[in-house]
């Protein structure tokens, strides 16, 4: 234990003297909303559907930004400061949530939702343009389901840049898709697991005249091992791999293709042949006892699309959708489920921005024609979950939901004010389970609010504080509510 503590302190000491900012940016709701505001208004050209997102790509987009107003320039500078300064420091943070004891929140939607009732974390970064080491260690606790340890090393990783590719190893959060409230195939609800990850730095187009029409493109590939829990029904040490490719052939269109697979694990084939079968989907969906024993694993695949209207009709609005198949038929996704949404980004004043989104998801198969299929598998009986939390959409399988979300950022240049920025957010949600017997369906309505502010300090310390609250009323059962506070310091 002492040796681990010494190693952590040494890493933090290196991080505190770092000369380069973090290069692989994890899911971050405020950063996502600021970048989405700029992208929806066509001030920057960037695809925001694959996280972690390379800082190289964000800088490239900012360097080519075309701000038309003071407001635009302020947001560009705010994002650049986060990437090049705020993200290159020794960081301390803490959060605590008061909620109904022993219950999972009924509103687990959106990026960066707390997985634990309380926690204290310390971390830092060390790196160069070619090397990236991020260390974050947290002590967590409370009534979180499925947790085996009070130590959390989420977002700890080491990365190496080879040409325009980043190769990294560690516990990195991933989020695949254009939606705000969840990804049908890979989100950040569950705690990140250790994985080897490969992705591009800058999403440059192909140089070939035969392929350049595809526009900016990116890929992300990973292979890792899921976290175990007590009383597992799935094989312990289940492996998970994923592959995603995105294309932006024009300024107004983003396309994505994704595929993941659970394979291997204790008592299952996990040699090179089994990996090859999982990659090629060879032997999937077989039926004899012997074939089922050799089946490579549980696979999901599908596509997503985002259409930006600003370049087309001058409206800072985008529409998006995602379709994922639980199974495969004739080499194409089948037993599909869906998500669709619309979002907008508007200027309130020279010091305030406004983002909104309306998003609906249906994780039942074929719009409810089949239930008990999405995120389920006969070999991996815990399903497409990790420690009871979904690897895909945060509401899990066989749920329909509609969410209206609004958030706004306000920033000041007056050093006499207590806060230099404010970020407000709110959501209204309706969700309903899908069952074969409609009399067994249940629904829940809820609302949540959040605020976050950057304290106007005059020294080299940055301080951020925040608070949130939520209320959920199920059709049957007791009302659930909670409040939370958090703070972070960076030096």
UniProtKB/TrEMBL annotation:
Keywords attached to this entry: Signal
Domain of life: Bacteria
High-level lineage: Bacteria, Pseudomonadati, Pseudomonadota, Betaproteobacteria, Neisseriales
InterPro entries in alphabetical order: Caps_assemb_Wzi, Wzi_sf
Signal sequence residues: 1-21
Record keyword Signal present: yes
Protein name: Capsule assembly Wzi family protein
Signal found in the keyword field: yes
């Amino acid at each position: 234990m002492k040796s681990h503590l010494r190693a952590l302190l040494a890493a933090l000491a290196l991080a505190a003297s770092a000369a380069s900012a973090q290069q692989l940016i994890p899911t971050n709701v405020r950063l996502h909303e600021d970048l989405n505001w700029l992208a929806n208004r066509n001030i920057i050209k960037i695809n925001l559907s694959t996280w972690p997102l390379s800082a190289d790509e964000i800088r490239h987009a900012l360097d080519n930004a075309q701000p038309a107003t003071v407001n635009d320039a302020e947001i560009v500078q705010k994002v650049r400061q986060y990437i090049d300064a705020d993200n290159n420091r020794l960081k301390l943070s803490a959060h605590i949530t008061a909620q109904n004891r022993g219950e999972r929140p009924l509103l687990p939607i959106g990026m960066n939702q707390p997985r634990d009732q309380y926690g204290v974390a310390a971390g830092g970064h060390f790196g160069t343009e070619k090397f990236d080491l991020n260390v974050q260690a947290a002590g967590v606790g409370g009534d979180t389901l499925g947790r085996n340890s009070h130590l959390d090393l989420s977002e700890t990783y080491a990365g190496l840049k080879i040409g325009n590719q980043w190769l990294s190893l560690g516990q990195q959060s991933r989020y695949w898709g254009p939606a705000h409230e969840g990804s049908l195939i890979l989100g950040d609800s569950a705690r990140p697991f250790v994985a080897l990850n490969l992705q591009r730095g800058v999403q440059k187009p192909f140089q070939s005249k035969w392929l350049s029409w595809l526009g900016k493109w990116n890929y992300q590939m990973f292979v890792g091992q899921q976290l175990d829990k007590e009383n597992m029904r799935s094989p312990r040490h289940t492996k998970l791999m994923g592959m995603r490719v995105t294309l932006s052939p024009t300024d107004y269109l983003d396309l994505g293709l994704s595929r993941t697979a659970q394979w291997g694990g204790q008592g299952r084939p996990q040699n090179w042949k089994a990996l090859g079968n999982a990659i090629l989907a060879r032997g999937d969906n077989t039926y004899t006892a012997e074939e089922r024993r050799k089946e490579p694993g549980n696979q999901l695949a599908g596509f997503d699309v985002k259409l930006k209207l600003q370049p087309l009709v001058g409206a800072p609005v985008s529409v998006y959708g995602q379709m994922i198949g639980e199974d495969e038929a004739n080499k194409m996704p089948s037993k599909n489920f869906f998500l669709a949404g619309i979002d907008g980004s508007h200027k309130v004043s020279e010091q305030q921005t406004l983002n909104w989104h309306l998003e609906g998801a249906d994780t039942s198969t074929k719009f409810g024609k089949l239930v008990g299929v999405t995120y389920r598998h006969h070999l991996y009986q815990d399903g497409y979950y990790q420690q009871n939390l979904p690897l895909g959409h945060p509401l899990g399988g066989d749920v329909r939901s509609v969410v209206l979300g609004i958030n706004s950022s306000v920033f000041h240049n007056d050093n006499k004010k207590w806060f230099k920025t404010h970020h407000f957010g709110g959501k209204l949600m309706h969700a309903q389970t899908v069952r074969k017997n409609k009399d067994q369906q249940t629904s829940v309505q809820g609302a949540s609010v959040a605020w976050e502010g950057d304290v106007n300090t005059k020294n080299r310390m940055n301080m951020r504080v925040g608070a949130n609250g939520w209320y959920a009323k199920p059709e049957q059962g007791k009302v659930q509510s909670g409040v939370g506070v958090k703070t972070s310091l960076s030096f």
